[in-house]
Amino acid sequence: MTRLARAVPVLVVFVVVLVCWHVVSTVVLSPARRFLLPAPHEVLLVGFLDPDNLSDLLAALGRSALVAVLGLVIAAALGVGLAVLMSQARWVEQAVYPYAVVLQTVPILALVPLFGFWFGFGFPSRVLVCVLIALFPVVANTLLGLKSASAGLHDLLTLHRAGRVRRLLVLQFPAALPALFTGLRISAGLSVIGAVVGDFFFKQGEPGIGVLIDLYRQRLQSEQLFAAVLLSSAFGVVVFWLFGALARRAVGSWHESGAARDRVR
Fold first, then answer.
1. Which one of 95, 156, 215, 263 counts the least CB within 10 Å of its CB?
2. Alpha carbon distance 175, 188 (integer Å)
3. What is the pTM of this model?
4. How far is 219 from 215, CA to CA, in rounded Å?
5. Which string of DSSP letters, residue by residue, matches the chain?
6. Is the pLDDT of residue 210 over 60?
7. What's residue 264's pLDDT?
8. Is 225 exposed, middle or buried (0-12, 13-18, 19+ CB in 10 A)?
């Protein structure tokens, strides 16, 4: 299947969404209530084609992107490290993994005000929110990937008297790459969400995209509000796509997932 053929369904859905959006805004809603859903061309004109608004949005997005990327890097390092430890020692997994699950189930929004009291309402607290939100998918997927290595290959390395480090580097890490990148793609989107959520609560310092969203909401500037939401969503999609591209380059066709994808093409 060619790239153009794969893109056609996406473009069709995009056009349908735009048409429905325009109809609801201009036909269904009365002029007095049109601020609830401004037309797509109004969002484009006011939010993106106005130089002042666009510069504010891009500057705020850059600050939030820095928070999201830094939080993702820290979460990836911690997650992979914990997964490696748990894969090498059963007692570590039994002791640590339940707390990782608890971390995933605890409502982060309930903890965000506490982070402000403990660590201040600035940059470190924003990064911490991203780390906590993005950590579990990396841990869970990497651990699953490390455990998915072939039992036959494990036996082969045992015959060659391979130690833990060699077994980890030669067998388990390559086998875990698809699962690891799946976790990173999930965590990348969650990290962007964490950066926006952190902006809502931690407003010290330069404003991020979440601060602008809250400001536009208070002022009922719906065109700028929709533009900020769309821009932050686009950033999340780009990060997700980037890790997907890295996964394809790293995994290639040697793994079952890459071979299956090549057959589909």
1. 263
2. 21
3. 0.82
4. 6
5. --HHHHHHHHHHHHHHHHHHHHHIIIIIS-GGGGGGS--HHHIIIIIISSHHHHHHHHHHHHHHHHHHHHHHHHHHHHHHHHHHHHHH-HHHHHHHHHHHHHHHHS-HHHHHHHHHHHH-SSHHHHHHHHHHHHHHHHHHHHHHHHHTS-HHHHHHHHHTT--HHHHIIIIIHHHHHHHHHHHHHHHHHHHHHHHHHHHHH--SSS--HHHHHHHHHHHT-HHHHHHHHHHHHHHHHHHHHHHHHHHHHHHTTTSHHHHHHHHH-
6. yes
7. 47
8. buried
Token pair of 209, please? 């995209």
How large is the C-alpha radius of gyration of the chain?
22
Question: What percent of the chain is predicted at pLDDT more than 70?
Answer: 87
pLDDT band at 176 (very low <50, low <70, confident <90, very high): confident
119 token code pair: 């660590």
